[in-house]
Amino acid sequence: MSAQLIDGKKVSSEIRESLKKDIGGLKAKGIDPCLSVVLVGENPASKKYVASKEKTCDELGIKSVPHKLPETTTQEELMSLVDTLNNDRKVHGILIQLPLPKGLDEKAVMNRIAPEKDVDGFGPQSLGRLVLDEAGFLPCTPHGAMKMLEAYGIDPSGKHAVVLGRSVIVGKPLALLLLRKNATVTICHSRTADLKAECLRADILCVAIGKAKFVKGDWIKEGAAVIDIGINVTPEGKIVGDVDFDAARERAGFITPVPGGAGPMTIAMLMYNTVQAAKAAAE
Ligand code: GUN
Which of 10, 22, 27, 53 does the annotation list as catalytic? Predict the structure, then answer.
């Protein structure tokens, strides 16, 4: 058996099409959705991600305002830029691409973003609301993973979901979203005693650890839905996920490709949050 592919490109394009209508409606009311995109330093992967986000903004009619700062930017300068963007009524969302160069305090910067402009959903108010099951900005990658499950009719309720990775921006919020949908959730990490055994129990397996092909084919339960959130570059320059795709595909029921799975969904959900921020500002 070969798993059905979860086509993140297709699902994300449907979301983008629906957002275009919302954006048209906002513009008709004189509101021009606007995302400020802050990139500090020269991290090549970050530059690429930021370029994709700006391109998608252009395609949808969201105004993206770039702030490209040098590696030598100080904490004070960055905090002051965030203050300026917080106070700019024309700016609806603020995206600060992570990681920041060494020496900058990421947490302090994220905490400074006004909660109503926190379209990445990484700030304390957004994450607190997520824990409390209150409406708020959801972190884009976990939200995108949930949207892919939904698009393929995979209902987490009553299922055993295993999340590999406990990062604040992916693993932890994804576990909470799966829990919100009534899955029984296990979070695994580098100290988990027997990762393979845990993975084999997963009806839904979500992997976000940043290690190329770490999850082997024989770690997958027959028929499981596998959401691969890793983006790794091999020494040959190929982009692969955290799951050994070819082997996993033979056992899984559904699987996301890398690229073309979680990546485009993350960007779509960032656009979604930006549109929500613009709508809220309009009210
Ligand atoms: N770095 C890696 N993923 C992300 C993301 O989703 N948002 C931001 N701002 N930085 C990231």
Answer: 53
Residue 92 shares a structural domain with residue 40? yes
119 C-alpha to center of ligand 1: Å?
11
User: For the segment 230-270, what is each residue's pLDDT rounded down to a tens digit?
Assistant: 999 999 999 999 999 999 999 999 999 999 999 999 999 99
Residues 88 and 168 in one domain: no
Does a structural domain hold residue 166?
yes
53 a catalytic residue: yes
Burial class (CB in 10 A: 0-12, 13-18, 19+), 204: buried
- Tell how far the Cα of 169 is from the centroid of ligand 1, in angstroms: 8
Q: Hunting for tokens 């490109």 — which residue is that?
A: 9
- Whether 82 and 167 share a structural domain: no
pTM for this structure? 0.97
Residue 256, ligand 1, Cβ within 6 A: no
Respond yes or no: is residue 29 known to be catalytic: no
| CA–CA separation, 17 and 268 (whole Å) | 10
Count of the separate structural domains present in the chain: 2
Summarize pLDDT for 51-65 with one digit per residue, the tens.
999 999 999 999 999
